[in-house]
Amino acid sequence: MASVAVLTLAACSDTTISSPGASETPVSPPPPPPPPPPAAATIDLVPTAGCPTGTAEATFAAVAADGFSDVDVCVLGSDATGGTTITADLEIPANTTIAIQGPVFIGEDNKDNAGTPVTLTINEGVRFFGASAGGTATATDDYIVVTRGSTIAATGTEAAPIRFTARAAMNDEETGSNLIEAGTNAQWGGLVINGFAPINACGETTATGGTADCEKSGEGSSGLFGGATADDDSGNLNYVIVEYAGARLTNTDELNGIAFQGVGSGTDVDYVQVHNNLDDGIEWFGGTVNAKHVVITGAGDDSLDWTDGWQGKLQFAAVRSTVPSSDDPRGIEADNRDGENDKTPFSSPSVSNFTLVGTDGNQQGILLRRGTQGNIVNGIVTGYATGIDVDNPQTFTGFSDGDLVIESLLLDTAENFATDSDGVPTFAASANIRTGNNSLVENFFPGQQELNVPVSTVLAADAFFDTTTYIGAFGPTETSANSWANFALAGTLFDEEEA
């Protein structure tokens, strides 16, 4: 019986019975296959109450090559050929995120009451982003144009500004990815506002500048602008940030961060930043619109640019230029009209209290050319290759006639006054233009050198301008922790490193 029991146990065992003295190395079973990677979480940006009327819910798929996640979001526009025209008033509630898909035209052009004017109302904390992946090939896919006769009412706050940004930036904010790098731009098109204010660049060659028949087609297929209504009202931009935008279709056809095209003085622009735009930060194409408290950081070309007869006003502008993406970047590039330098109405803006901080690769801090007139006063220019460059006979005529006034500046650049090919200065210093080392604190706040420059009073009688006792964008009691620019993106103006 004992032998039967042993045989039974052996039969029930899967153990190999070896002869005494034999040995084998056990073979470990293969490891289990790794689990599949988790699916990327979808970013859900649709409000609990649903999408605002006039927008539609959509899902944009992940773009693995660009590191994007899926995103559910409310969309303004569509991928329709030729873009989308909004024909009814639209309001975006506070703190909502909206994707811009394709060219979006706010209203139809309303010349001779032929179109449908509408208002786009944007409340505090709203974030728009371009739906495309970005890059110079697709940046023109997504942009907003406010047409003549329509308005944009964009009212943010210092704590909750309205932002127009890139899909990559939105992805970073929602998932912690790191898609936005230093110098990133050209991720979407930009913001264009068209108005009925006077311009001098008439598409119809028989039209007279400044009249209702003088109108022009905007760059980037952005529609018609210009007219004869100096106080035309296109709405307001208050506490608005435009970032990572811009497109360069050709050297003469570009999308800027913000383009004011024939925009009138009835429009309110106050506390605006453009950051890392491929082309110009802000460009004024004629018109009479005024602006205060403007920050331009990281513009690929010119930070502040005007042409076509701009006659507006600007006070308190802070510019920080980084490594440019164009061959001829300037802090200010000022034209009247290319090829027709004496065209009227002349570009003749009044600009006061500005600080332009340049870096390697930037050319002129201020280039005044092609017949521009105006008042350029109470400014600081540092870090550029050249401080001031005045070109073209018509521009000098304006200076000698008193139509171009340049006063109360501090220049600290490699060459403070540009010289032409035979070494003759293109501009002789006028009233209270000082040169020498600056004493700026944190690159922008005035020290003793700046406070020693007498303040120009040429604009003292103009009610638009606040009375100041200092040159430059900021006063002596302001700091990076407490200034009018506190609404701007952190780390873009005062810090040494910018994204």
What keywords describe this structure?
about 500 residues; single chain; about 30% strand; 4 helices; 17-stranded mixed beta sheet; mainly beta
Structure notes:
With 499 residues, the chain is mostly beta strands. The strands form four sheets. It has a 17-stranded mixed sheet that branches. The chain has an eleven-stranded parallel sheet with strand order 4-7-10-13-19-21-23-25-27-29-31, with no helix packed on it. A two-stranded antiparallel sheet has the order 14-15. The protein has one domain. It has four helices and 32 strands. Helix content is 6%, strand content 31%.
What's the gyration radius in Å? 29 Å
Helix share of residues?
under 10%
- Secondary-structure content class: mainly beta
DSSP E strands, number = 32
Provide mean pLDDT, rounded. Answer: 90
Question: How many DSSP H or I helices?
Answer: 4
Gross morphology is: globular
How many domains, in number, for the residues?
Answer: 1
Please state roughly what percent of the residues sit in beta strands, choosing from under 5%, 5-15%, 15-25%, 25-35%, 35-45% or over 45%: 25-35%
Low-pLDDT sequence parts: 1-23
Largest sheet: 17 strands, mixed
How far is the N terminus from the C terminus? Answer: 87 Å
What's the layout of helices and strands?
Layout lengths: L1 H11 L30 E2 L11 E5 L10 E7 L6 E3 L3 E3 L4 E5 L1 E4 L12 E4 L4 E4 L12 E4 L4 E5 L6 E4 L1 H9 L14 E5 L21 E2 L6 E2 L9 E9 L3 E4 L2 E3 L2 E4 L6 E8 L6 E4 L5 E7 L6 E4 L5 E8 L11 E3 L15 E8 L6 E5 L5 E9 L3 E5 L2 H8 L3 E9 L2 E3 L15 E3 L12 H4 L48
